[in-house]
Amino acid sequence: MSSERDLDAVFKALANRVRRSICDALALRPLTTNQLSAHFPDLDRTTVMMHLRVLEDAGLVVAVRKGRERFNYLDATPIQAIHERWIGPHAASAASGLLRLKTELERAEKKTDA
Q1: What pLDDT, on the 0 to 100 scale, is given for residue 1?
Q2: In this structure, which topology does domain 4-75 adopt according to CATH?
Q3: 87 vs 11, 66, 82, 90, 93, CA distance in Å?
Q4: Among 52, 68, 80, 100, which is least packed by CB within 10 angstroms?
């Protein structure tokens, strides 16, 4: 992430249920805008395109034109950056705590067996 503004854009994009669903669909494979619109029958194509624009601005979707079609690809790099900044350090700390707990429990078990 190059700036706090970029980070804000990612969180804004992911704060919307429809945009998260679009990311879920694109995680499976790239889809054209028409294919994505078919995933959301309650939304018109213009609304789907508006959501795609927000995801593109956040760097989460990359659109590639192939002939007359526009293929949308998920770019999870911004999500990975969020993971590395906030989730990774906490997960490492939790794993370390569990290892200490395991060691203490095994130590206590050996004392009771002796």
Answers
A1: 44
A2: Arc Repressor Mutant, subunit A (1.10.10)
A3: 14, 37, 7, 5, 10
A4: 68
